[in-house]
Specification:
The chain is α+β, with helices and mostly antiparallel strands. Among the domains are: about 35-165, no CATH class; about 655-750, no CATH class. It is about 45% helix and about 15% strand.
Length: about 750
């Protein structure tokens, strides 16, 4: 063989092998959540994801679910410009759980087929529900049924694969690595400890990792140091963590820490999404740079909840490549779709005075108005007052920092400032104007001509004048039915012609009732009025009036909440933590800002979401089965099936029963419950004429006079007759009675025992 293969130096080969392995080591590929696009018409194919993160991308989409924009106004079009106008119908979502809709392409898609349809599905496969999009609305329902019941079975196979994929107990890794119930309990306990540490750090906006997390380090970072402290304080925690945990399941690595933070943020976002539902809302948007000089856009939503209270919730933060209105609009669309919301439900916009935000022709507010003409833009009142505030009196400006501030109260404050401005015009205006001109000349600032005409936004002015009529102060002194009907006509999509006619009559009855009701005497602003209406159930008695008040409350007053978000960003992402990626920053900010919602979420929900983010080495215990199998009957039935079922629910969680001696000629059997010290009886016809020889895993071994063995589950009623068991000796002691059996002429006979 030496003439065919030249010899190599063994030491040199070893060095080369190690060096080649180092060179071949490639960096870990992580999923970028910006690639998880909610709108099915804008997604990239699932097969375009790198194979290392493809399953992770599938799990991310399964966590979100099919995209179904809440309250979206589906457009209606004519096919080829002829016939009846048709469009997507929202009720189809209730009939087909796989159906999703693309706002960008006005088309329908199949959620399961996108995730699991084979790439090479054959010559007859079609990409209508995965890539192209379905738009034949005339025959939509028939086409949907045909797709779900297709002969080729692609849809059903994709659906089955999705359900199996969500159930990690069906995965190859889980089947290959069998874990006991005790190990799963220890895994849950270990994970709960890690979640508790993550909760504390997120709520306090503290860093997780340290510079040196090795075993010899004296400062391993907040997460690992808290874990060490926890283990020393609680002996039970020490039993399931550190050296007592499997080496490949420590659950303390950076990836697990990020997944815990992501699960916390997603559960908090789900709560916000459920709060909004299909309600109208307003958006407050602002942008700023973080510690790493990256442009970040923060979004806050404002809506009225079930109690009639104004709520402002932090949606999230999105990195934008630039601050042009087009980029901001795209980022806003992405965030709304991530929450399953539609831009058609927006009823207000609030920005600062930047031209890219408030520009009349090309600003963000104009781009939103082009899609939704009822998303009225209100310039931040705090900025307006700051421009005209007199001297050092900043009290009116600081009042707008409250989250529950509403438009009526804001108009009242503006009126107070304007009255002071009018007084200044009469006394001291000339001196102030000369001082301003001198300042402008020194700083090369163009002095505006005071004689020029100022363009006023007629729609915004009309809106504010009408809203002012809802002011409840002084027994609704500003109340005018005609202006409020005019306000309803501005919102044409929310009030039809009949509603406007009916509203006039309802307003007259409403104002008469509330002026004579003591409950409304203390109403000082519009927010109090809405809450009182809900408390006295007048929101259902006068739904049109309440709808009008709700739309007025939604209008944004100030951008203080979204500006606070950037203060939180500066606390979380500091110069020492300037390498935080955008997903990590977004998760941290959601949990820190919406701390009340986050703190109210149960650990179980977060753990389940965490488990679904990736394919884990271990699974959480089957708590559903554990709760349903609390009674002895169900417990024995469950455990008697097979060994995996017994492993899923430990026997220690069930109440043990002792079989009492029973008469072979009777079918009544007694059981003694040890914990409760009670005797239970059960009718078992199969025990008549037999004796119990033993039991195992809830099964009784019965033997008749012919020595025929039968396995019986006394609770489930299952039988396994004619089981071939090892031959017994000449004498068998019957454990359930005071009798002895022996073989006489080939037959087993019972003999009474003495005593």
């Amino acid at each position: 063989m030496e003439k065919y293969y030249a010899k190599k130096d063994a030491s040199k080969s070893t060095v080369e092998t190690i060096e080649s392995r180092v060179e071949q080591k490639r960096p870990r590929i992580e999923l970028d959540m910006r690639d998880i696009v909610a709108d099915p018409g804008e997604r990239k194919p699932i097969d375009d994801f790198h194979h290392d993160i493809r399953d992770e991308a599938r799990r991310a989409y399964l966590q979100i679910g099919p995209y179904r924009p809440a309250g979206h106004k589906f457009p209606k079009t004519k096919k080829d410009g002829k016939g009846q106008s048709r469009g997507f119908v929202g009720s189809w979502f209730d009939q087909f759980d796989w159906l999703e809709y693309s706002v960008a392409k006005d088309a329908a898609y199949c959620f399961y087929c996108y995730l699991f349809k084979p790439q090479q599905a054959g010559f007859h496969s079609n990409d209508t529900f995965t890539k192209v999009g379905f738009r034949n609305w005339k025959n939509a329902k028939d086409s949907f049924k045909e797709h779900a019941q297709s002969i080729d079975g692609f849809h059903n196979n994709a659906r089955k694969r999705a359900l199996d994929f969500k159930n990690q107990r069906q995965s190859v890794e889980h089947v290959w690595t069998v874990t006991s119930a005790a190990e799963e309990e220890a895994y849950k306990a270990r994970l709960t400890i890690m979640l508790g540490i993550a909760r504390f750090l997120l709520l306090q906006a503290l860093a997780f990792r340290g510079h040196d997390e090795s075993k010899t380090s004296r400062n391993k970072g907040n997460f690992m140091e808290m874990l060490e402290w926890y283990r020393k304080k609680d002996p039970k925690a020490a039993l399931v963590t550190g050296e007592n945990a499997p080496g490949n399941n420590q659950m303390s690595c950076p990836m697990v820490q990020k997944d815990l933070a992501r699960a916390c943020a997603e559960e908090t976002s789900e709560l916000i999404k459920s709060e909004i539902g299909d309600r109208w809302f307003a958006v407050l948007v602002d942008e700023a740079r973080d510690a790493s000089i990256k442009e970040q856009m923060a979004v806050v939503v404002r809506f009225v909840n079930d109690k009639g209270s104004v709520i402002e919730r932090f949606f999230g933060i999105e990195h934008v490549s630039d601050t042009t209105s087009t980029s901001l609009k795209k980022a806003l669309d992405t965030m709304l779709r991530r929450y399953g919301l539609s831009i058609s439900k927006i009823r207000g916009q609030g920005y600062d005075g930047a031209s890219n935000m408030r520009g009349q022709f090309h600003g963000l507010q104009r781009l939103v108005l082009n899609e939704n003409p009822y998303a009225f833009y209100i310039h931040c009142f705090a900025h307006q007052l700051q421009l005209v505030s007199i001297g050092d009196d900043s009290r009116p400006v600081t009042m707008f920092a409250k989250k529950n501030q509403n438009i009526v109260r804001a108009i009242g404050l503006i009126g107070s400032v304007m009255r002071n401005m009018n007084e200044m015009r009469e006394n001291g205006w000339e001196a102030l104007f000369e001082e301003v001109k001198e300042f402008c000349l020194l700083n090369n600032i163009e002095i505006p001509n005071m004689e020029d005409m100022i363009l006023v936004r007629e729609r915004s002015t009309q809106l504010l004048r009408c809203v002012a009529c809802l002011d409840p102060r002084d027994s609704f002194a500003n109340f005018e039915v005609q202006k409020l009907v005019e306000l309803a006509k501005i919102y044409k999509d929310d009030f039809c012609d009949y509603d406007c006619i009916k509203l006039a009559g309802d307003l007259r009855i409403f104002i008469d009732e509330v002026r004579n009701d003591d409950n409304f005497d203390n109403c000082t602003d519009l927010g109090n009025l809405a809450e009182k209406m809900v408390q006295t159930e007048r929101d259902t008695t006068f739904p049109l009036v309440y709808r009008l008040i709700e739309l007025a409350l939604i209008l944004p007053v100030a951008t203080a909440t979204v500006e606070r978000a950037f203060s939180a960003m500066n606390i979380i992402k500091t110069e020492r933590r300037n390498k935080m990626n955008d997903d990590w920053l977004n998760s941290s900010m959601i949990c820190f800002i919406e701390r009340d919602l986050f703190a109210s979420i149960e650990d179980e929900k977060i753990l389940k979401r965490f488990q679904g983010l990736r394919n884990r080495k271990m699974n959480l215990p089957n708590e559903g089965s554990r709760q349903r199998l609390a009674s002895g009957h169900d417990a024995a039935s469950f455990r008697s099936a097979c060994s995996p079922w017994r492993a899923a629910v430990p026997f220690a969680t069930f109440r043990p029963f002792l079989l009492l001696p029973f008469d072979p000629n009777s079918d009544r059997v007694g059981f003694y419950c040890v914990p409760e010290k009670k005797v239970l009886s059960k009718t078992l016809p199969d025990v008549r004429g037999k004796v119990a020889c033993g039991s195992s895993c809830g099964w009784l071994t019965l033997m008749d006079e012919a020595a025929s063995m039968t396995l019986l589950n006394p609770f489930a009623g299952a039988r396994a007759p004619h089981i071939e068991l090892p031959l017994a000796g000449e004498h068998v002691v019957v454990t359930s009675s005071s009798e002895r059996m022996s073989r006489v002429h080939g037959r087993w006979v019972l003999h009474p025992t003495n005593g």
